[in-house]
Amino acid sequence: AQSVAQPEDQVNVAEGNPLTVKCTYSVSGNPYLFWYVQYPNRGLQFLLKYITGDNLVKGSYGFEAEFNKSQTSFHLKKPSALVSDSALYFCAVSAPRMEYGNKLVFGAGTILRVKS
Amino acid sequence: NAGVTQTPKFRILKIGQSMTLQCTQDMNHNYMYWYRQDPGMGLKLIYYSVGAGITDKGEVPNGYNVSRSTTEDFPLRLELAAPSQTSVYFCASSYPLDPRISSTDTQYFGPGTRLTVL
After folding, report:
1. pLDDT by residue (tens digit) across A76-108?
2. Where is A68: in which H helix or E strand?
3. Could you say which of B44, B103, B108 has the minimum Cβ distance to residue A102?
């Protein structure tokens, strides 16, 4: 069965420091990997995705993520955190011939807190 | 474009009551989805639709029903509300650039409906 693990419930970082939000996955076949962000009382917003090609994917708001097939990871990174980056971050995976259409399987989410 | 809109934003139901959560998208997306979000659990797929007149069950469909009479609308029906259905419900849509690999599509989410069943 497909699954996503976000091992940290919360990540704390000081403004201006680099941030990493971790994600590992388990899926049969080639994975398609996504990061979404959720601000308080809002829906999820798409940040970036990896489908194929370059392992380093750049997305919205200066975020990037690196696909590592051997470690089955897709960690989200940003070189310099902003207070406004504080939110709930979800990693999700899908794959060809997934159950339930093009179902996204979501991780439990990681709260990012950036302190000034 | 308004994107994906959901109504109501909040609702409190009594056990056994019924209600319909509304979802509309104006992006002409074929695919639409309903998820529920529980604390610490991520999002779970309830139902999805690949086009008008076509719906199918997701991971947690029990206690819910859906219909898709138009491309734009995908209402979610709760017939007999139970406390276990207390959750935040999100509707999403996507456009399959290639239906053979629709699992690569980006999903666009509505703002959510917070439902409490007492």
Report:
1. 999 999 999 999 999 999 877 655 556 789 999
2. strand A64-68
3. B103
pLDDT 10s digits, B6-42:
999 999 999 999 999 999 999 999 899 999 999 888 8
The structure tokens 């819910």 sit at B64
Cα–Cα distance, A19 to A78 (Å, whole number): 5
Residue from A104, A1, A114, A115 nearest A44 by CA: A104
Q: Where are the beta strands (DSSP E) in chain B?
A: 4-7, 10-13, 19-25, 31-37, 43-51, 54-57, 64-66, 76-78, 87-94, 108-109, 113-117
Tell me what the pLDDT averaged over chain A comes to.
Answer: 92
Using the beta-carbon criterion (under 8 Å), do B110 and A43 form an inter-chain contact?
yes
Question: How many Å apart are CA A107 and CA A104, to the nearest integer?
Answer: 10
Min Cα distance B1 → chain A (Å) is 16
